[in-house]
Specification:
Elements (H helix, E strand, L loop, with lengths): L2 E2 L5 E4 L11 E4 L12 E7 L2 E10 L2 E7 L8 E5 L9 E3 L9 E4 L7 E6 L9 E5 L10 E2 H11 L3
Antiparallel strand pairs: 1-2, 2-3, 4-5, 5-6, 5-8, 6-7, 9-10, 10-11, 11-12
The structure holds zinc ion (ZN) (2 copies).
The site of one zinc ion has 7 residues, from loops.
Length: about 160
């Protein structure tokens, strides 16, 4: 039942997932890269059946690593080290080369929140990327495709 869409992303028909969304398909990210082109998909940490995206996080007084789900709208994550704090922002870094992930736009959940962008190609292309909020517990904490965010900004001028 699985197949790839024209961009090479895996599509899971909704019948294989919880039917709590109106969308027909859910995206699974099979490739993700830091701004320097390191692959951050970690085969050692599958979440709900798919290898997750591994990142380092840092905020004053705390740092660690986590793996987030590669499945769109899936909030599950694995904390490898350190602790996250609800409502608090962390800057996110590549676990391999330590470069910081870039920010696309602000998130409106808190004054300093950012939507972090992760490329789906080794060379960052804002139209072929995912974005999510870097504040723990934010409703934008699961990723959406950046194209949708950019369209939203163009239409409404704010996020
Ligand atoms: Zn890197
Ligand atoms: Zn947010």
């Amino acid at each position: 039942m699985k197949r790839f869409d024209k961009d090479g992303r895996l599509i899971i028909p909704i019948s294989e997932r919880k039917r709590d969304r109106e969308k027909e398909v859910t995206y699974v990210i099979t490739e993700a890269y830091c701004p320097n082109g390191c692959n951050i998909i970690d085969q050692n940490y599958p979440i709900n059946g798919y290898p997750g995206l591994r990142m380092k996080f840092k905020r004053p007084g705390e740092e660690g690593e986590f793996v987030i789900s590669a499945i769109e709208a899936d909030f599950d994550k694995i904390i490898l080290s350190g602790t996250l704090k609800n409502g608090v922002k962390d800057d996110l870094y590549c676990p391999h080369c330590a470069v910081m992930f870039e920010k696309l736009v602000s998130c409106n959940c808190s004054p300093d929140a950012d939507m972090v962008i992760v490329g789906l190609t080794p060379h960052l292309d804002f139209n072929n990327a995912i974005t999510f909020c870097n504040v723990t517990g934010c409703h934008n904490g699961t990723f959406v495709k950046s194209g949708a965010v950019l369209r939203h900004i163009r239409l409404h001028d704010v996020l």
